[in-house]
Every structure is written in C-alpha cells, then in structure tokens.
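Schema walk-through. Below, the input block comes first and the output block second. Nothing else is stored per chain. Lengths vary across the set, and this one has 484 residues.
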Amino acid sequence: MSRHLVRDRRRFLRVTSVLLMLCGVPALVLFVLLLWVLASGVQGAMLAASAFCCVLALVLAVAEVACGWRWLRRAADKARLAEDESVAGEIQAIVLVGLNVVATVCFLMALRSTSVLVTLSGVACVVVGLCHYAAVHMQKHVSFWEDVHQDASAEPVGARVEGLVCHLVLDRATGFVRKAADGEPSDVRIYSLDEFEQRMGTDQVSRDALRVAADVNHCVAYSYEGVSYGSIQIPHEELEHDNWLSPTTLDRGRVADIQLAFLIRGGTLWLVVGTEEGAALVDRYLDRQMLRKQNVSTVLAELIDVLVRDDAEQLVQLETHLDQLEANIGEEMRKLPGGFVSYINSVRGDLSVRQRFYRQLAEAVDDLQEAPATGMPKRTRQLYRQLVARLRRLADDARVLRDYCQQVRSSYQDQIDVRQNAVVSLLTVITSIFMPLTLITGWYGMNWEYMPELHNPFGYFTLIAMAAALVTAEVAYFKWRRWF
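--- output ---
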C-alpha cells in the first residue's frame, strides 16, 4: 500500500473525528432547550418524555465529543492499530449512529413539531457516524499492511549517477582491494555509463560491451578473444531485505533495481554502475572482503558472493514466517484481513523474481568459468564452481518457498470454505428449528370462527408446551447427528 494512500486515510480519519466532535454541539443545544422546556413547568407524560430526551441529549453530546477526541489523538499517533482497538472503534461508530437516529425521533416527539433544523442535524450526525465507521475500518487494514507490502503500480527508478570515476588496486601483499593512490596503476576501475562510453574503443567487442552496459535488463556473460563482459541486474526484491542502503535511498521508499555491467580485459576489471544503489554496492563490497585474491576474476566472484552471502538466512526467516502464518490461519481466522491473499501473492511474486535472478546469475557465472577466453587459474575456477552451486541452491530454495506460498494460500482458502460451510450449516439448523413453529403460528393465525383450540382454556399453554417439546426434540436430534 502506497504511503500517499496511508497518509490520505489517516487524514480522512482526522477529518471524521473532528466532525464527530462538532456533532456534539447540536446535542448540547438540544440539551439546553430541553432544560428550558422542563423549567417551563410541563406535566404528565410530557415531563417524562422531556426528561428522557434531556438525559439522552447529554449522553449523546458527551459520547460524540469523547469518541471524536480519542480518535483524533489516535490518528495523530502513527503506531499500528490493534485488532481489538479497531473493532471497538467500529462498534462505537455503530452505537453513535443508532443513538443519533433514536435521539432525532425522540427530540421531534418531545418538541411536538417536525423541525427541519432538528431533522437535518440528525441526518448530518448519522452521515458523520457512518463516515467515521468507514475511516476506522480502512485504518485497520492500513495498520496491518503499512510495513508489509508496497504499492506495485509503478517500478521504482534509482537516482542516476554521472561522472563517476573510481580506481581500485588489488594489493598482492594482503590479497584485498583498496582505493588506489594518485598515480598508482589500478586493477579495478569503476565508471558511470557516460565515463565508460568515453573510454571504450571502436572494435566490435568494445561496442558490444558498451551495448550490454547501456541496456542492462538481466544477468548474462560473454567471452570473446580474451575478453569477458556481461551484465548483472539485481532486482529490488533482492535488495529490500538488505540494510546497507543509504538514508537517501531509504527515504525514497522502495529501492530500485541495481544495473551493473562488467568487463575483464588485460588483467583489469571494469565495473559500470548507473545508480546510487550500484555505487553503494561497491562500497559494501570493500567493507566485507574476506577472500585473499590473486586476480580480478576472483574480485568479481567475491563481489557476487557478497551480494548473496546473507540470502540463505533470509530465505530461512521467510520460511519461518510462512510457517507461522500457516499455523495461525486456523486459530486466528477472524483476525486475518481481507488482503491476506494479495499479500501471499506478493510474497510469491517476489520469490519468483529472486528465483529467476539466482538462476540467471548462476548461468552467467558458469559461462565465465567454462569459457577458455578467461584464462582462470584452477583455484579461481573452483571458486566459481562453488559460487554456481550456491546460486543454484538458492534458486531451488526460492522455488520451494514459492510453492509453499501456494500451499499457504490454499490452506487459507480451505479455512474460508470450512467457515462458510459452518455458517451455512448453522443457518440451516436455525431455519429447520423455526420452520415447524412458523407452520404452527401460521396455522392458528387464520382466525377461523370454528377452531376448537381457540376456546379451550388450556389451548394456549398446550401450544406453548408443544412448541417447546418440538424445539427440544429438534435440537437434541441435530446435536445427536452432530450438525452443529
């Protein structure tokens, strides 16, 4: 659910709360008016009616002001709305609507006139009460989904990076990558797309590498004449579980896909990043190095490893979350909002994207380690094989969880069907119990002149006993058959 929609619904709740407080003003006016009527010395039934309406007006005014003030403060608080609290708010709104209807009728009877002002005030208060009920009801679903899923109407777009030039050095002594000093030869060069385009040659391989870097939409790798190049598109579904993004990126709500291109030529690794998220990924890699590297191919492998290093744990946590959802479906069926299926479908869609990402990345890494043009040492090829195996395991885990989401959704639908069947069965039992009683009342309601039972002094009590015995027999039979 988008943040704009969340903000609009909170604003709607604040507006209805203020209007609900204002609805207490007409009730206070009527309270004063009825006090004046009582002071005028009315007698008999008019005195009792005026006193009742006076108390009703005071209760209604206090209830509307208190309820409106409570929900006005609650709307300003951004804490999540509890299920019991939202149900209590809906009940309060329903009670206020009923009180306004009863009060309007009583006021018109007490004033002995069809006052247009009183009628319009009552109608307005009823409408405000209904709007307040709708606001509380919508806020309940906003509170549940606010931090769970986002509006997928438009894909996020990351902030473009231009003029980025960064040179890194693979320190042979330590085996780690560090920033290059001024004038020091670099092993890893990081450029934005515009800077990369200026440094590319005019040969066919360079033009094709530039084409791949300019249009990154999946993970792929190519190797020709001692040159390896390709692209890595990291979907936002993969990135939203990480905590290394910059505050500026997080303020935009959803993160964008990272589009990364690479080129290995002559012992040098070129990386092309197009967004701030891509630059943040490189900084994260520099902070999380663990492997002692001897060539730039190992640098690329460790960069990919850093990207998916925590994914296995994330998938385990997601599996645990799905287990809890499945366990709670039967126990807390009424507490699940109507958007539960949409949420499960959203999780299933994210897992599909991540599975495709793992599979494509595994194929790209496999192509790099098998290509003879890369000239990788045996140890580096073994590292690439291990990375391919891990990516394929992640793809399998994502596929299993995607199927598990389908199972959870099916369980939810099954529980809904069971609940609906139970409701229908209960209604059927109730209808069956009252059907004979309806027949009896209809039969003896014909008011024929010659009906012996009507003149029998024990006929009324006999009919009551017969109806009670019939209902008891039916309930016992239904219970014996376990129909409810």
